[in-house]
Amino acid sequence: MQKQVRNLTEMAIAGDLPEIHKWYQENRELSLTTIDFYEKIIKPVMERVGILWERNSISVAEEHLATASIDYLMTQLRYQLLHPQFLQEAPSILLFCLEGEQHSLGLKMVSDVFRENKWNVKFLGPSVPTEEIIKTIDKWEPDAIGISVALSPLLPKLKECLNMIQDLEREIDILVGGRVASLYNLQEFGIENVHLCNDLRDIESFAVNGLSKSQPVLPEGDL
Q: How far is 144 from 110, CA to CA, in rounded Å?
């Protein structure tokens, strides 16, 4: 697996989409679930890219190119996870990054885990204004919401968003993840139905089993 990670890292940094597509076609039968593929290949690739960038071994442009390349690869996988025949009766989840949060690759992994488990997913992407989030919730009435936030300065924005969702007075499970979720005790917010997710396994557990409305907030998370 390390060889696969190393080779894919090199292709991603080079932005070689034809080779990445070829690699995917040749390795799509690795007998990995979506989560295993992300945990054992995609995440290690992005970690290697991050280390190389920190060491100044690659440029900012190459780091961005690698991210875009991995996003392309994930798109290839996503086509296999769509189950349109189930969407009418499927549970629904709304996924987004808080306004000011630009990193959405991890949340895309989350969206794919839900799609694989036959959820109806709406992915709003990075940096979504809170007012638009509330409008979408009010219009679409999702069963659950997933929020990604990694930047500490956005903690007040997270609390504001959670309060506005609570003001809707609807029973909606809220999943929160990202670096901020692991650094702060969000129980102090006093918001009900908030679940902190540690990794994609937590996400899969929710997607498969759901969480009771009275279940307490978990201690830490990384969505």
A: 13
Strands 144-148 and 120-123, how do they pair? unpaired
Taking Cα atoms as reference points, which of 94, 95, 140, 87 lies closest to residue 117? 87
What SS3 class is residue 21? helix
pLDDT band with cut points at 50, 70 and 90 for residue 85: low
Taking CB atoms within 8 Å and a gap of at least 24, the contacts of 53-60 are 58/13
DSSP letter at 98 equals B
Mean pLDDT of the chain: 84
Cα 17 from Cα 21, distance rounded (Å): 6
Helix H or strand E segment including 4:
helix 2-14
172 φ, ψ (degrees, to nearest 5): -125, 125
In whole angstroms, what is the distance from residue 221 CA to residue 184 CA? 10
pLDDT in tens, 86-124: 566 789 999 999 999 988 888 999 999 998 888 999 999
Please give the C-alpha separations between residue 90 and each of 115, 146, 167, 170, in angstroms, as whole numbers: 10, 16, 25, 19
Can you read off the two tokens belonging to residue 120?
Answer: 């109806």
Which residues on neighbouring strands pair with residue 93, listed in sequence order?
A: 121, 144
pTM of the model: 0.79
